[in-house]
Amino acid sequence: MKKRGKSKVTVAELLITPSPRSSPPDNSPKTAIFTRTASTSKNVKRATAGTKSQPLKALSNISELKDLASSRVDELKRQIDRSHSEILKDLEASQSRLHKRFKMQSQTCQQIMDEADKEHKKVSERITESREAMKASYEEFIADAQASASRACKTSIADLSQSFDKSIVSLRNRFGISST
Predict the structure, then answer these.
(1) Which of 64, 66, 101, 172 could in theory staple to 59 by disulfide, Cβ–Cβ 3.0 to 4.6 A?
(2) Helix, strand, coil tally for the chain in percent (to 5)
(3) Please, which contacts does 85-94 make with residues 24 or more away whose CB atoms are closer than 8 Å?
(4) How far, in Å, CA of 70 to CA of 79, rounded?
């Protein structure tokens, strides 16, 4: 194409097919949508920007140019739609994996909590049994102590009383005092 200062480009110049040697370097953006080479999904064929383009033939009028532009735009739209659907599939697969992982970890946490509750109940039951055994042992000890103290008191008082009575009797006898 020839550039003429600020003048308009003619239709005839637009319809001329440039030769491969004189075409400008490819300055189109290289985005992931148009140039994906590796697939993250299984069995998915990816399309690239350089899809089967038909060799350009000389366009004779504007309607052919419009048709060509329209077909290219439609092709790009289809590629974008395919890329979008593949991205959505990848996203859904990723979300599914994350959901499964979260579910497994939640189940594991629930099992650990259940086991901890069971262990807590066992320890609590053991403490309760130990406390009850100590209480019974203490009550038995106190009962034995009270019984022996009672026996000691009964026996000691009776013995002391008899001992005092004997001592008093012996003192009376010694001093010749009569018991009245």
Answers:
(1) 64
(2) 65, 0, 35
(3) 86/41, 86/44, 86/46, 89/41, 89/44, 90/40, 90/41, 93/41
(4) 14
Which one-letter amino acid corresponds to residue 4? R
Q: Copy the structure tokens of residue 160.
A: 């002391």
Domain regions of the chain by residue span = 60-138
* Single pTM value for the model: 0.41
The SS3 of residue 13 is helix
Within a 10 A sphere around the Cβ of 134, how many other Cβ atoms? 10
Tens digits of residue pLDDT in 101-115: 999 999 999 999 999
CB 84 within 8 A of CB 78: no
pLDDT digit string (tens) for 147-159? 888 887 777 777 8
